[in-house]
From TrEMBL:
PANTHER family: DUF373 FAMILY PROTEIN, HYPOTHETICAL MEMBRANE PROTEIN, CONSERVED, DUF373 FAMILY. The chain crosses the membrane at residues 158-176, 182-199, 227-246, 258-280, 301-319, 325-347. InterPro entries: DUF373. Residues 353-374 are annotated as: Disordered. This is DUF373 domain-containing protein. Pfam families: DUF373 (PF04123). Keywords: Membrane, Transmembrane, Transmembrane helix. Residues 364-374 have a biased composition (Basic and acidic residues).
């Protein structure tokens, strides 16, 4: 049996007419085609379904065993749509009452729908593929799909769009320092905006911003303290930078080590507070989620240890501390980190062993009861 398979990858049929898919059989498919043509006469999937009916009628007149069906994906496209098409093909094949081997003739409206052909081949042999496109729009659709693929492919867009964006930025940069007349100003601004857009698309900045915004929304709705901790930490970082700059102005920056020591000495307490804040926020969220492990508690102690060591070293370089204070700070910082690591490692080992023994005891009790039951 030959299965004439009309593919609607973006589910225009279901979204615009309310038809449940897959649609199997000559009369149901004709009803679906008429409903879609009535809802949207300009939809190219109308031509696909009518082409499937035309092929079905032509083969039926030759007394060949044939069936026609319409399968759809979803408007999300990509992998999700391909999977949905595969599931509907399985439903169609299960509904066919024939002892003959089934092969498929796939009918699509363009290159985008043909991306699902490997999914179809994994379920039924494909005898052929027929593309139905309005002749005047065939080249335009192919060009649009190719350009869309370039924009969606991370590797391709990075190698193509970024150089184009840089080239478009050269023209407005060449206008700097010269008299900007109105035509040149407009062309330069347009070129700069287009270049920035291509560079942002090439780097995928839009997707990253969308992902970051989604994470922020999830954190707000889930009541995660990490978001608040990051905001506070950002403010502390700014204060640390201002404090470090003020300290730099108070000393004589004769050498690079002295400048670095001044910046660290003035900002380390603020940076340490930011590190402790973020680590405590993360620990709180892990505890609420039930995923907290003992070794996570090392983070604030490590931050304090590192801050103590950096404060002592920077103070020594600035002449604000002697060797005794430096040695004491290095020793205390090292011992604090080692002590916290050992303490939480021992606690994690003991508590995990205790929990495992309790779990084993709970599983052994039912088994013992089963053995002593008369």
């Amino acid at each position: 049996m030959l299965l004439v398979l009309c593919v609607d990858l973006d589910d225009d049929l279901g979204r615009k007419t309310g038809f449940s898919t897959p649609v199997v059989g000559r009369e149901p498919v004709e009803e679906a085609a008429i409903a879609l043509a009535t809802a949207d006469p300009e939809d190219s999937d109308v031509n696909v379904i009518f082409q499937g009916l035309h092929v079905y009628d032509d083969l039926s007149e030759r007394d060949e065993s044939v069936e026609v069906a319409v399968v759809t994906g979803n408007e999300e496209g990509d992998v999700a749509a391909n999977r949905e098409v595969g599931e509907e093909i399985d439903t169609v094949l299960a509904s066919l009452s024939t002892a003959d081997d089934v092969t498929a003739l796939v009918i699509t409206d363009g290159a985008q729908d043909e991306s699902v052909i490997p999914v179809i081949r994994s379920r039924v042999p494909v005898d052929g593929v027929r593309r139905v496109v309005v002749r005047q729009a065939q080249n335009l659709e192919s060009m649009y799909y190719t350009f869309k693929q370039v924009l969606d492919d991370p590797e391709t867009r990075g190698t193509v769009l970024i150089p184009l964006g840089i080239l478009l930025l050269i023209y407005p940069l060449a206008l700097i320092g010269s008299a900007l007349e109105m035509p040149g100003f407009v062309l330069g601004t347009t070129s700069a905006l287009l270049g920035l857009y291509l560079i942002s698309r090439g780097l995928g900045l839009g997707e990253r911003l969308d992902t970051a915004a989604a994470q922020v929304r999830r954190s707000l709705y889930a009541g995660r303290t990490t978001l608040l901790a990051y905001v506070v930490a950002a403010a502390l970082f700014v204060l640390g930078g201002v404090s470090g700059t003020n300290t730099l102005e108070e000393v004589d920056p004769s050498t690079a080590p002295v400048m670095l020591a001044a910046l660290v000495y003035g900002s380390i307490q603020w940076l340490a507070a930011a590190g402790v804040t973020t680590s405590l926020g993360q620990i709180t969220d892990e505890y609420i989620a039930g995923d907290l492990e003992w070794r996570y508690l090392n983070a604030p102690f490590y931050v304090v240890s590192i801050a103590l060591v950096l404060h002592a070293v920077s103070a020594f370089f600035l002449g604000r501390a002697d060797v005794g204070y430096l040695a004491t700070a290095l020793t205390v910082g090292t011992l604090l980190g080692i002590t916290s690591t050992l303490a939480f490692a021992i606690a994690e080992s003991r508590f995990s062993d205790h929990e495992e023994s309790e779990a084993d005891a709970e599983t052994e009790e039912p088994r013992t009861a089963e053995r002593v039951r008369p």
